[in-house]
Amino acid sequence: MQKYANPCAKTSWTKQLNWPFILFFAATHVFGAAGIYYMAKIHFSWVTVGFAVVWYHLIGFCVTAGYHRLFTHKSYKCARFLQVFFILFGTAAWQHSILVWCSDHRRHHARVDTKDDPHDATRGFWWTHIGWLIFKSKPLDVITVPDLYADWLIRFQHRFYFLLAIGLGFALPVALAFLWSDPIGAFLVAGFLMLAILYHVTFSVNSISHYFGAQPYALTSARTGWITALPTLGEGGDHNFHHAFSWDYRAGGHEWYRIDPTKWILWILSCVDATRNLRRTPPAVIMQAQRQALIQYATASKK
After folding, report:
1. CA 211 → CA 133, 237, 252, 259, distances in Å?
2. Is the per-residue pLDDT at 12 higher than 70?
3. I need a labelling partner for 85 at 20 to 30 A (CA). Which of 72, 106, 115, 122 fits?
4. 239: number of Cβ within 10 Å
């Protein structure tokens, strides 16, 4: 286990802590809890519940298919209208701009399990889940994402991220809920409760999927499992496979039985040419990685 210096050793906690994230993260839970109380004691609406569930999957899909598989890993190509959809509605997930998200995630893959990994698993479960976000991170270096910075719409999203996030993440659900006379319910349940759940589900890919499960393709902390597959829309399923073959659009695993709704939707969209060039790892390459992982595991077991 690597030892790390206290991140607050030289300066005070208040200067090291990422207070904007901490306060907003706390607010999502407070207002999310208020949403549960509102639905249980004040006004329950099946329409609001249904809308919140659909909203969760919509913005979650923009993160898994857009932020992650398209913009970070270039796992496929798609029509411009779909890119615009991902860029705009991805802001509603409140996980920062594409430039920041992808820069962090590419660094994670390039430096996995090292001190340069933003959510290095060797620092402990809770660090990978949320600790790395509580402390201030390095400023964005656009040099790490030149391909993304070249897109004017991605730059636009980054520049006006918070205005877009407020408008699409909260104002839009509230406006739509006037159609069934429950804007408060939409604000609390779709706007905050679903966001709080989505946060922890997304974070579970960094924590649970890096601590529990098998390592059939590569001996990194990333694991193969089932528990996080469905709520993460496939991201947390065969995470070991994803780290071995990050360019593969089947981030949740290459086997047909792996739960990966994002993969299924991308394939369906390819049937109408909305997505194309879905990148797949050749079976021979996968088998070679499995054999190599077995050899490495056997060698490590003898030591």
Report:
1. 19, 13, 16, 19
2. no
3. 106
4. 28
